[in-house]
Design goal:
Elements: H1 6-31, H2 39-66, H3 70-75, H4 81-106, H5 122-141, H6 148-153, H7 163-179, E1 187-191, H8 197-202, E2 208-213, H9 216-228, E3 234-238, E4 252-254, H10 267-278, E5 284-286, H11 290-293, E6 301-305, E7 308-311, H12 315-325, H13 348-355
Length: 375
């Protein structure tokens, strides 16, 4: 049997003590997103183990420096520099994780919709330029006119909500989903998706992003664009929003007044009622238009804030959830992002659970937009 080095023994002892604690922290974070309750005691134990490991590691580093040569240190059972550097890197990661856990435990309140600037500033000008660029891209991806059938049925043409406005709504919806303790993966659908631009953008926030439209030409344009970009977590298909029967599959439903009021099949009013009735209780709705704001109470929905609503939820419960969502962090762990673990496989679930509380490790590797790489 191969002998175990002093560094391996130190790590194995540490791992045996810390591993179960990491599992308890992960479970606590997933149960109590947006709350600090129950974290303090576990976090104290976590930090105590890390400090003890640091002390032992420092002792081994001093022993190595005293050794006359690397050969003598190895022969005498003293750790080598390479082994100690590896443990020091792992310790640094664990200290970063501890820092994030302390941020979660503080549960600092941050608005779901931070106040926008007044428009006379550099940031607003930059966002405006970006939104115009995204709009040009949308027009390029879906350059064709609305089909006569869709127009006759009462559907609107592909209406472009600005990219920055959608990002604000999607981020707020994600934080509400965290506060609801919704399990992964999160499923999003755009009702009346047109050329699929918001489906593409939603994939930056949610694991599965679907969209459907009544207009066959719009659906074809969206499918071609998503296929060219290899957006593997995005899916666009043809369907009728007034007869669609799978709203209950989704965690987040987005619709931006895709139909006229009245008309064949009852139009927009029937669509709103069908979504509110068929979606599961507590489903997150993103409905950024005035008519829904004036009607959500009649549809038995609660308003969280701005354009975020919850199906079959009282207003008091929606406001309670908003307060809890505000105590989640501001950062995003991209659905395709690989977590840096420095070889500590059992640490990854905890890092992802921290991500689902709104905090992300610095320097985590990221694959760009999260699509299948072209090269």
């Amino acid at each position: 049997m191969r002998a175990i080095s002093v560094t391996q023994k130190h790590w194995m002892d540490f791992e045996a003590a810390l591993g179960p604690l990491v599992g308890q922290l992960e479970a606590q974070l997933l149960r109590e997103r947006g709350r600090s309750r129950g974290l303090s005691v576990l976090l104290d134990h976590f930090d105590r183990q890390i400090r003890g490991f640091d002390v032992g590691l420092s002792q081994m580093e001093r022993m190595m420096r005293r050794a006359a040569s690397p050969d003598q240190s190895k022969a005498g059972g003293v750790a080598t520099g390479h082994e100690l550097r590896g443990l020091r890197v792992r310790l640094g990661l664990l200290q970063q994780v501890s820092g994030l856990l302390h941020q979660v435990a503080k549960a600092k309140a941050r608005a779901l919709y931070p106040a926008l600037c007044d428009g006379v500033d550099i940031g607003s000008a930059q966002l405006g330029q970006l939104d115009r660029t995204v709009l040009r891209l949308q027009l390029m991806l879906n350059a064709g006119p609305q089909s006569p059938d869709a127009q006759a049925y009462g559907c609107y043409a592909d209406i472009a909500l600005s990219g920055s406005a959608f990002a604000r709504h999607a981020h707020a919806a994600l934080r509400v989903a965290w506060a609801q303790n919704r399990p992964r993966p999160l499923r999003f659908v755009d009702v009346g998706c047109g050329g699929g631009m918001k489906v593409l953008q939603a994939a930056e926030f949610f694991e599965h992003a679907d969209g459907f439209d009544f207009d066959h030409a719009y659906v074809g344009a969206a499918q071609r664009a998503l296929r060219q970009m290899q957006a593997v977590r995005c899916n666009v298909f043809h369907d009728n929003a007034l007869t669609h029967g799978e709203y209950a599959r989704y965690d987040i439903i987005y619709f931006y007044q895709p139909m006229n009021v009245g008309g064949e099949g009852g139009g927009l009013e029937s669509l709103e009622s069908r979504i509110a009735e068929q979606a599961r209780p507590g489903t997150i709705l993103i409905a950024p238009y005035l008519r829904f704001l004036n009607r959500f109470e009649a549809l038995n929905c609660g308003r969280v804030q701005e354009a975020i609503f919850l199906t079959q939820t009282s207003q008091a419960e929606a406001e309670k959830l908003r307060r809890r969502a505000e105590r989640t962090g501001p950062q995003l762990l991209h659905p395709d992002q690989k977590v840096r673990t420095e070889g500590i496989a059992w640490l990854e679930p905890l890092i992802r659970a921290i991500g689902d509380n709104g905090y992300v490790l610095d320097g985590a590797p990221h694959r760009g937009l999260g699509f299948t790489p072209l090269l």
